[in-house]
């Protein structure tokens, strides 16, 4: 199973076969037999394309329509006439920052996503290394317990988590949410990092040990640099998940100054009458953050998610 | 070395203990109490008895299982289908993969906003599309006949995650298997059904598991889109527990929370058995 996780990256990087590339460019009969979809038959590939197009429209149309609508005037949005903006306006985007103050929520969400990701990474990396490398009593227990957390629907724990956060004096505070998000992202980060660490050979660490390097020196100087690809992968996933998280942000904050972009989005919905263009522009910006991250770091996101899915 | 390793696991143990282990113990223990966060009184199984007799709980359980069924029987099969098609690497497959994955990285709150517009009876896109083919629309989200379906429609077509898991798994199938089948005269379609599909058992099982886990705790969409209405037609277990929490009825909220985690655990074990996850 582990092999499949890493092979996604390999497939996406795979260059198309040279023969196939020729076939794409020319319609000459000589290259025909090499072309996969030709052999499959024109009818079959037409059917497959129709399937793909229908699936894409079904899953993307509503979000795309809302993004397009963020450039419409309030009057056009409210009448629902026409798919494209006539006239086109960026008033919504101006309102999102000057009236809704989206930048304040973006700042909070960035803080939660970056802080929570770093927290989860540090804690998970420190724990993953000994649990991947050494044998000691309680190791199997810890490995299983940490991984089992992935099988718990966290919303079930709402009240006890609220209670604990309140008793720790962390309710409705930025640091409280950063710590909570570090905790929530810990199991996934741990599972992926641990199985990555198991896959790297221990020789380098042994050599460093011979040279008299201590545990934390080895961890920081040898293991950490080797783990960069896995760290990159889990970081993107953790960042996006925290950026998108709603339930605990809603549970654990009340004041506007601590609210995340997702809470702002939920509030827009009830304030439709008040500034719909600003709300749609805001929603578009909030959606675009993970979308752009995904487009830029596609390979890491896909690897991270499949690795997590397969290993848990 | 030993001490360092211990030191190195300690932060994880503390974080895990504080936010997973202790809450889980508190959750189950207080589900047998009447608790408001301050005063606490042991009431035995009273919360659970009350749950069984509350018709809203029955609705919440039914709706949650409905959402879960849409996830498992609509989203997963469609995702598997799209994953198999994309793994054939038709021209432009990467573009489709990117486009189909985008909805997966959009948050539940954004989805709620998108669909509250999409379903809007006056200005929504759905009704204008239907009007153009002369079908009269409705107020999908606030008509108790259609509300559940409208909520399910928001996530049923988010295929990205299942798609990439399936594509990763197909990439790991040795090409020789297909070569051998082709030599034996198997058609493309036969190859997909006889080779690919059986080998995807584990990956499909994993997708079902993840769906079960996500849908058993369905909250964001329902809370923001409909707040559980109309007439509790869309309420989920998590939202039902949240309402009890808001009323300071924490013992009862935790009994519902225990049921969410318990039903989740049972379903996870069932799915693992069914798909024989773990053994190949």
From TrEMBL, chain A:
<feature type="transmembrane region" description="Helical">
    <location>
        <begin position="141"/>
        <end position="163"/>
    </location>
</feature>
<comment type="similarity">
    <text>Belongs to the binding-protein-dependent transport system permease family.</text>
</comment>
<keyword id="KW-0472">Membrane</keyword>
<feature type="domain" description="ABC transmembrane type-1">
    <location>
        <begin position="106"/>
        <end position="297"/>
    </location>
</feature>
<feature type="transmembrane region" description="Helical">
    <location>
        <begin position="110"/>
        <end position="129"/>
    </location>
</feature>
<feature type="transmembrane region" description="Helical">
    <location>
        <begin position="175"/>
        <end position="197"/>
    </location>
</feature>
<dbReference type="InterPro" id="IPR035906">
    <property type="entry name" value="MetI-like_sf"/>
</dbReference>
<feature type="transmembrane region" description="Helical">
    <location>
        <begin position="42"/>
        <end position="65"/>
    </location>
</feature>
<dbReference type="Pfam" id="PF00528">
    <property type="entry name" value="BPD_transp_1"/>
</dbReference>
<keyword id="KW-1003">Cell membrane</keyword>
<keyword id="KW-0812">Transmembrane</keyword>
<dbReference type="InterPro" id="IPR000515">
    <property type="entry name" value="MetI-like"/>
</dbReference>
<keyword id="KW-1133">Transmembrane helix</keyword>
<feature type="transmembrane region" description="Helical">
    <location>
        <begin position="218"/>
        <end position="243"/>
    </location>
</feature>
<protein>
    <submittedName>
        <fullName>Raffinose/stachyose/melibiose transport system permease protein</fullName>
    </submittedName>
</protein>
<feature type="transmembrane region" description="Helical">
    <location>
        <begin position="272"/>
        <end position="297"/>
    </location>
</feature>
<keyword id="KW-0813">Transport</keyword>
Automatic annotation (TrEMBL), chain B:
<keyword id="KW-1133">Transmembrane helix</keyword>
<keyword id="KW-0813">Transport</keyword>
<dbReference type="Pfam" id="PF00528">
    <property type="entry name" value="BPD_transp_1"/>
</dbReference>
<protein>
    <submittedName>
        <fullName>Raffinose/stachyose/melibiose transport system permease protein</fullName>
    </submittedName>
</protein>
<feature type="transmembrane region" description="Helical">
    <location>
        <begin position="100"/>
        <end position="119"/>
    </location>
</feature>
<feature type="transmembrane region" description="Helical">
    <location>
        <begin position="149"/>
        <end position="168"/>
    </location>
</feature>
<feature type="transmembrane region" description="Helical">
    <location>
        <begin position="208"/>
        <end position="230"/>
    </location>
</feature>
<keyword id="KW-0812">Transmembrane</keyword>
<keyword id="KW-1003">Cell membrane</keyword>
<comment type="similarity">
    <text>Belongs to the binding-protein-dependent transport system permease family.</text>
</comment>
<dbReference type="InterPro" id="IPR035906">
    <property type="entry name" value="MetI-like_sf"/>
</dbReference>
<feature type="transmembrane region" description="Helical">
    <location>
        <begin position="65"/>
        <end position="88"/>
    </location>
</feature>
<feature type="transmembrane region" description="Helical">
    <location>
        <begin position="250"/>
        <end position="271"/>
    </location>
</feature>
<feature type="domain" description="ABC transmembrane type-1">
    <location>
        <begin position="61"/>
        <end position="271"/>
    </location>
</feature>
<dbReference type="InterPro" id="IPR000515">
    <property type="entry name" value="MetI-like"/>
</dbReference>
<keyword id="KW-0472">Membrane</keyword>
<dbReference type="InterPro" id="IPR051393">
    <property type="entry name" value="ABC_transporter_permease"/>
</dbReference>
């Amino acid at each position: 199973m582990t092999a499949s996780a890493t092979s996604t990256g390999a497939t996406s990087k795979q260059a198309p076969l040279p023969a196939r590339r020729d076939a794409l460019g020319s319609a000459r009969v000589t290259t025909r037999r090499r072309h996969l979809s030709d052999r499959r038959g024109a009818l079959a590939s037409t059917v497959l394309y129709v399937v793909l197009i229908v699936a894409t429209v079904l899953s993307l149309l509503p979000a795309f329509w809302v993004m397009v609508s963020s450039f419409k005037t309030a009057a056009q949005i409210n009448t629902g006439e026409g798919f494209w903006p006539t006239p086109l306006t960026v008033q919504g985007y101006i309102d999102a920052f000057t009236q809704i103050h989206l930048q304040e929520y973006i700042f909070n969400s960035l803080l939660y996503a970056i802080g929570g990701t770093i927290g989860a990474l540090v804690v998970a990396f420190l724990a993953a290394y000994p649990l991947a490398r050494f044998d000691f009593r309680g190791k199997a227990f810890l490995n299983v317990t940490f991984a089992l957390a992935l099988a718990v629907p966290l919303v079930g724990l709402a009240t006890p988590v609220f209670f604990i956060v309140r008793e720790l004096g962390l309710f409705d505070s930025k640091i409280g949410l950063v710590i909570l998000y570090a905790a929530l992202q810990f199991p996934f980060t741990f599972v992926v990092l641990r199985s990555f660490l198991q896959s790297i050979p221990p020789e380098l660490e042994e050599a460093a040990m011979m040279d008299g390097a201590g545990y934390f020196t080895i961890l920081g100087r040898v293991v950490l640099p080797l783990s960069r690809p896995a760290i990159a992968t889990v970081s993107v996933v953790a960042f996006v998940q925290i950026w998108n998280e709603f339930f605990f942000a809603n549970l654990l904050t009340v004041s506007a100054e601590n609210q995340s972009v997702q809470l702002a989005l939920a509030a827009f919905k009830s304030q439709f009458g008040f500034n719909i263009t600003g709300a749609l522009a805001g929603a578009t910006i909030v959606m675009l953050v993970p979308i752009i991250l995904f487009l830029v770091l596609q390979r890491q996101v896909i690897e991270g998610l499949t690795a997590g899915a397969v290993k848990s | 070395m030993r001490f360092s390793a211990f030191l190195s696991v300690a932060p994880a143990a503390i974080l895990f203990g504080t936010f997973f282990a202790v809450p889980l113990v508190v959750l189950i223990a207080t589900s047998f109490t009447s608790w408001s966060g301050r005063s606490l009184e042991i009431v035995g199984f009273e919360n659970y008895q009350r749950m069984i007799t509350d018709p809203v709980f029955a609705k919440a359980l039914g709706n949650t299982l409905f959402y879960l069924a849409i996830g498992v029987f609509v989203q997963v099969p469609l995702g598997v289908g799209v994953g198999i098609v994309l793994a054939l690497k038709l021209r432009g497959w990467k573009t489709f993969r990117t486009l189909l994955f985008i909805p997966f990285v959009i948050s539940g709150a954004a989805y709620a906003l998108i669909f509250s517009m999409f379903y809007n009876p006056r200005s929504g896109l759905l009704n204008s599309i239907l009007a153009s083919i002369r079908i009269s629309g409705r107020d999908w989200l606030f008509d108790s006949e259609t509300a559940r379906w409208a909520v399910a429609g928001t996530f049923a077509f988010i295929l990205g995650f299942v798609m990439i898991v399936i594509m990763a798994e197909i990439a790991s199938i040795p090409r020789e298997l297909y070569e051998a089948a082709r030599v034996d005269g198997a058609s493309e379609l036969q190859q997909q059904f006889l080779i690919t599909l059986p080998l995807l058992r584990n990956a499909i099982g994993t997708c079902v598991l993840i769906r079960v886990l996500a849908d058993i705790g369905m909250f964001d969409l329902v809370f923001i889109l409909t707040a559980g209405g109309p007439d509790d037609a869309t309420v989920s277990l998590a939202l039902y527990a949240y309402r009890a929490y808001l009323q300071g009825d924490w013992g009862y909220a935790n009994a519902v929370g225990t049921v969410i985690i318990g039903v989740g655990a049972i379903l996870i074990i069932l799915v693992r058995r069914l798909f024989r996850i773990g053994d190949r």
